[in-house]
Amino acid sequence: MNPEALIMLIVAIALVWGGLVAAAVNLFRRPDQSAGEDLPHTPSST
Amino acid sequence: MSQAATKAPKREMFNSRNYFILAAIGSAVGLGNIWRFPYVAFSEGGGAFMIPYLVALVSAGIPLLFFDYAIGHRYRGSAPLAMRRLGGWTEVLGWWQVLVCFVIAIYYAAIVAWAAMYTWFSIDKAWGNDPQAFLYGDFLHLAEKPAVSFDFVPGLLLPMAVVWVVTLVIVALGVNKGLAFANLIFMPLLLVMFLILVGQSLFLPGALDGVNALFTPDWSKLTEPRVWAAAYGQIFFSLSVGFGIMVTYSSYLKRKTDLTGSGLVVGFANSSFELLAGIGVFAALGFMANSAGVGVSDVAVAGIGLAFVAFPTIINEAPLGALMGVAFFGSLVVAGLTSLMSIMEVVIAGVRDKIGIPKPVAVAVVGIPMAVISLALLSTTTGLYFLDITDEFVNKFGILAGAFASVIAIAWIVRKLPQLQRHLDRFSSFPAGKFWMWVVGLLVPVVLGYILYSEFASKIKEPYGGGDYSLSMLGVFGWGMAGALVVAAIVLTLLPWRRNAVVEFNEEHNEHEIAARAEGVTK
Fold first, then answer.
1. Carries keyword Transmembrane helix (chain B) (predicted)?
2. pTM > 0.90
């Protein structure tokens, strides 16, 4: 592989997969507030 | 609470936010990730394409994902119901999205069925030495001239019927026992099969030449608006935004769900898979070029040609080809099936909300006729022609045009972006803020409008298919179908809602505002 292609491969992986890891860490380090909510309810706006 | 609301059928809910995330990723990761992204990236600048691609992801893809989530979650309905509660007449946009899904499901089932058959064919390489002749001759029995015939091919009819049965059963089982459970099995399976494929491809001779070709940047392309439009187009089509899927799925989320945090995971997971697919596909194409003694650009293709002609050729030559074939076609089946399920859910949910029937009944009265139409049009000797025209037109003048209309209507006519932004930010970890309003209200309509205009202009200038299709075929299955969706959407909007349906929405007094006040959240 030529150096330019290799750099772009690494940059793409770092940003996209890094983005996924960052998004997952952001989501899962906080408690899921919806977990304790009651299950089904009727439609709103009454 | 009024008498009417207490009589309304209970709305389904995902038992866990993580089920939703998995189902949303399953929907977003589809055939386009595997057979469209690698070729688009390669032909539109290689490594340099990653820049407009990432810009498009954060400036349009993820914001549009948030947009759909906010609509479905706040207004708690399938696309037509949520859109009705949002702005009254905007219900028509919801039906347009439902009808787009109706059309896509008709032909998408065929591709999943073909991939399933090719998974089986991979074991003994049933396509022989000439995969192209096998595909169009022995397998599809493709008619010589594009037309519509009801000349059925049993080898296509049976697998398609199985795909329909599986899909309809999963949808009928409901969001937890059906959709979530299926994704719980299918998504890890997809990842394992795809990792086997990528791992195997990377060790083939010539693989690195393929990856090199994919990532070698052509910086001059960045000055071409067409390349930027291609990046926004890829992100848009790949993420399953704008045609009701994410609206429907997010209507099954509990009130305090972290919408933006979940959306970021879905958006980046979709692109992560796409990037992996690019590496795997081009490693395999590098091997194919190496074996044939030609350049990678000579073998690079997308779509049907990549899956059903190039890959069988690669599988013929590669060591452990059967394993590679099962991994590749198995991935297509699973990625396609999880997307098809979500597309069907949009249609079923829309009909259910409007006429108030139980889910299994809706699956029977809507899903079975759809399966029959699908089998009648796609399991014949002319199915591929129908698929090609319909896919092109429904994507451009169904999904894209519908999304453009929705964004314009919601941002500029009924002006609900401030409510949606507040809704997104209330219980979410990642602030959407004013930036989100600006991109959805301004940048997204400009970009979608530009792509839509270019598509329209190019199809007027030169009929689709480069002369292969008669104008009457393009008129009926292309332009006519796209126009009929809008007319049918208007008709469906005019039909009455079921008795006791709650189609009004009070922005100040609703379940979300009540919950927020109870929590002491003032936003």
1. yes
2. yes
